[in-house]
Every structure is written in structure tokens, then in C-alpha cells.
Design a protein that fits this description.
Elements (H helix, E strand, L loop, with lengths): L10 H15 L11 H8 L3 H13 L3 E4 L3 E4 L8 H11 L7 E12 L2 H7 L6 E11 L2 E11 L19 H9 L4 E11 L2 H7 L6 E11 L4 E9 L15
Antiparallel strand pairs: 1-2, 3-4, 4-5, 5-8, 6-7, 7-8
């Protein structure tokens, strides 16, 4: 039996989803004003009640708040940007990070691959890999510890992977340019686990704090693993918020 074709989301949920992604990515910063019903109706060529339903959906999700006689404003988000949202932002803005985020690099260098990294990259256990560790801060507080690993053989053709600085468009874009890769795909998975000692120190967590661990593997179009990422988030940071139709 063939699967049924999914119905397109209602227009108001498409608008709400677009705004939600901007909020999670940080393009619409906390305290910033959201477009009004009149502006959304004009931008999306919809009736005002449809635009109003979109804002109401965001209010129900706790992402925005209305101020009488003033407008609708972004509340402080608790959602961790997904890799997909960061890649979309890099494609449109040239950077994976919002204006409210800063990035620092505690370590960049060549190390022996941990077992799970070697497996993800299709390398022998203990093989040398390039490690890029970065901490993302928002409003002065760490909100993400993210580490990327690459086959150390890439150092010859992609030397900037060993520089402790941001690469415009991200590492995947940089590798695509130097390796002349035209397409790639990503596979991600997530779990909750206890924080390691290093993670507790970097993210200022208590001894028994849980974390959200997010693994991302980027493959070339022919299935060859190119990059493996592990991002770790402190508790109370939601992820994978999305809207989709349910057929009843």
C-alpha cells in the first residue's frame, strides 16, 4: 500500500512556523516586535483573521506576548536552534549564529578519535581527526557546547578547519567549496543523558544535571561521511518544535 500524500499545512500554521523559526534562530530577538496582523496579511497575501490565527498560535506556544495598545513581542525563547535552522540561516544570512549569540573556541586541533566519532566518520578506532570545539553564549550565558570532527586527512585541502575562528557559512559550506561538493545530506539523532565533568564546567551545570545531546552526521551525496557534530545543551532548552497536520 502506497503512503498517502501529506496535506499542506494551513496557511496560518505556515506563517506561524516561519516566525517560530526566526525566533528560535535569533533573527527575531527577545523583546523585538513581531510583524502586526496587518503587516502579515499584506506580506503573505492572506486575510487578517488568518494572520491573527498565526500570532495566536505563537502565543499559545509561549513564544510571543501581546501588549495592549502596543503590539506583539518575542518572549525569551527556550528552544535550542536545530542544525537545520542554523544551516538555513547560514544559506540566507552567511552566518549560522544570530546577533544575540557569540562564539568562542576552547580547542581546535588534531586528536585521536573517540570510538563513537570514528564509527560515525567511518575511520579506524583511534584514527587522527580534526576537532573544533566551540561554546555558544547568549546574553553572556553559555547555551550550547558544540564539537565538530573531521578526518585529519582534510587538513591538507581544508587548512582553515584548524583555525580557531568562525568560517563564513559554516564548516560544511567551507568544505563544499574546497572539495567542490554540490550536494549533501544530514542525519541527526538526539538523546538525554548526564553531563560529563567538562560539560558541567563549560555550561555551569550542577553535578547531576541532565543534558540534551544532539548528534549530526553530514554525508556527501554518495553517502561518504564528511563531518560529525555533537552539540550539548543545558536542561530547560527545548528542541524539535514543529507543526504538522494530523489526519483523523
Amino acid at each position: 500500500m502506497l503512503p498517502e500524500i501529506e496535506e499542506v499545512l494551513p496557511k496560518y500554521l505556515q506563517i506561524a512556523g516561519y516566525l517560530r523559526d526566526q525566533i528560535v534562530r535569533g533573527d527575531l530577538a527577545p523583546g523585538g516586535e513581531v510583524p502586526s496582523v496587518r503587516e502579515l496579511a499584506a506580506q503573505w497575501s492572506v486575510a487578517r483573521p488568518t494572520a491573527s490565527k498565526a500570532l495566536e498560535a505563537l502565543r499559545q506556544q509561549g513564544l510571543v506576548e501581546s501588549r495592549r495598545g502596543s503590539g506583539t513581542y518575542v518572549r525569551a525563547p527556550q528552544a535550542a536552534p536545530r542544525a537545520r535552522e542554523r544551516y538555513e540561516r547560514a544559506a540566507s544570512e552567511g552566518t549560522m549564529y544570530s546577533d544575540s549569540e557569540s562564539v568562542r573556541f576552547p580547542f581546535v586541533g588534531v586528536v585521536n578519535a573517540p570510538a563513537h566519532v570514528a564509527d560515525a566518520l567511518g575511520l579506524a578506532r583511534g584514527a587522527e581527526v580534526i576537532q573544533r570545539q566551540r561554546v555558544i553564549d547568549s546574553k553572556g550565558a553559555p547555551v550550547e557546547l558544540s564539537t565538530s570532527w573531521f578526518d585529519a586527512a582534510l587538513a591538507e585541502v581544508a587548512p582553515r578547519l584548524l583555525e580557531a575562528e568562525r568560517l563564513r557559512g559554516g564548516t560544511v559550506r567551507y568544505l563544499a567549496d574546497v572539495l567542490e561538493i554540490r550536494s549533501a545530506y544530514a542525519r541527526d539523532q538526539v538523546c538525554a543523558r548526564g553531563a560529563s565533568a567538562d560539560e558541567r564546567q563549560v555550561l555551569s551545570l550542577s553535578e547531576h544535571a541532565p543534558t540534551l545531546a544532539y548528534w549530526l552526521t553530514v554525508h556527501t551525496s554518495d553517502g561518504r561521511p564528511l563531518q560529525f557534530d555533537e552539540a550539548v545543551y543545558p536542561p530547560e532548552r527545548w528542541a524539535f518544535r514543529q507543526e504538522y497536520p494530523i489526519i483523523l
